[in-house]
Amino acid sequence: MNYGIGIDLGGTQIKGGFFDLKKGKMLAKDSVDSRDGDWEGNVPAFGVEARGLVDSLEKRAKKEAEIAGVSAPGLARRDGSAIASLPNRLDGLEGFVWADVLGKPGAVLNDAHAALMGELWQGGAKGLRDVVLLTLGTGVGGAIVADGKLLRGNIGRAGHLGHLSIDFHSEMRTICGAPGGLEDFVGNHNIVERTGGRFGTTLALVEAVAGGKDEEAERIWDESMRALAAAISSIANVIDPQVVLIGGGISKAWKQIEPRVSHWLDEFEWRPGGARVELRRAELGEWAGAYGAVYNATIQQGMVDE
To answer: Is residue 53 scored above 80 in pLDDT?
Structure first.
């Protein structure tokens, strides 16, 4: 097989890439509205839109793809045919068999898992065998590759690192029920509450920090970075990765993230023999899921070894 398509389904957009599998290069890309909540007959509209995206990408690349991988929110079935569980979002996604609509063999993978697989294939984790991804955005997503293999776990929920409890006394609960979870200290979803109404977005907070004159913004941001470092040091003790990749929209503030997290890791991290976890910024940005979706499909179809 020479060519494949990676589809990355989100709540508002579907991103698609056409790939030269041997070179690992994206030859064409496009995006369409996911039309969450709409149906066309007995097919959810996102399936119809994704099929249209496949056709469009093949036309633009002037080549036919042999496989199509899908990245989507939720817990994927072990056989990779569909998303098994995603309550209260993307109506019709649970149990939706993508190969039936896309008309090509492939596989479906959780979106955070796919992002790390993309980074492992052609991004910031290329060549690594032990790596953790943390995506900082509305919440905090995550994924783990251990000894060269994606860690899925018993039911596919491995890698939900945003739900690590940083403060078990906290009255805050993540959407998974964890008290004082990492995403409640770092994610954008509660930035108004965390800043006493001063900032409406994490971007606004970071801009105030970068200005260097707002002591309260500095304090709030440092508290977030201290929580992130505490989580990373705990992850290091449990998983022992070579590298922790930081991705997601908040990672654009790398100059405000890396020095502060490194400072707290100097205090928190156990470093036997001087070993330390390396921090890197993820490289593939919003297209990581498409890269990972098609790469996972090549693995599941037996084209390459995981």
So the answer is: yes
Q: Is 113:153 a contact under the CB 8 Å cutoff? A: no
Query: What amino acid occupies position 25?
Result: K
Domain extent listing, the chain: 3-110+286-300, 124-282
Q: What is the Cα 30 distance to its own chain's centre?
A: 19
Pick the more confident residue, 175 or 288.
Answer: 288
Nearest-angstrom CA–CA distance, 221 and 228: 11
In the chain, count of helices (H) and strands (E)? Answer: 9, 14
Q: Looking up tokens 């953790």, which residue turns up?
A: 132
115-172 residue pLDDT tens = 999 999 999 999 999 999 999 999 999 999 999 999 999 999 999 999 999 999 999 9
Characterise 159 by phi-psi region: left (phi > 0), alpha (psi -120 to 50), beta (else): left
DSSP code of 190? G
Residue range 124-282, CATH number? 3.30.420.40
Distances in Å between the alpha carbon of 18 and those of 61, 66, 298?
7, 11, 14
- The answer to whether 263 and 222 are in contact (CB under 8 A) is no
The pLDDT score that the predictor gives to residue 170 is: 92
Q: pTM for the complete prediction?
A: 0.95
Q: In what order do the strands lie in the sheet with 67-72?
A: 25-33, 13-20, 3-9, 67-72, 106-110
Measured between its terminal Cα atoms, the distance across the chain in Å is 17
Instruction: Examine the pLDDT at 238 and tell me if it is beyond 80.
Output: yes
CB 64 within 8 A of CB 3: yes
Q: Please state which CATH number belongs to domain 3-110+286-300.
A: 3.30.420.40
* Run of H or E including 268: helix 254-268
Neighbour count for residue 294 (Cβ, 10 Å): 34
With a cut of 90, say whether residue 175 has pLDDT above it: no
Residue 235: pLDDT band (50, 70, 90) is very high
Joined together, the tokens standing for residue 123 give 């991004």
8's enclosing H/E stretch is strand 3-9
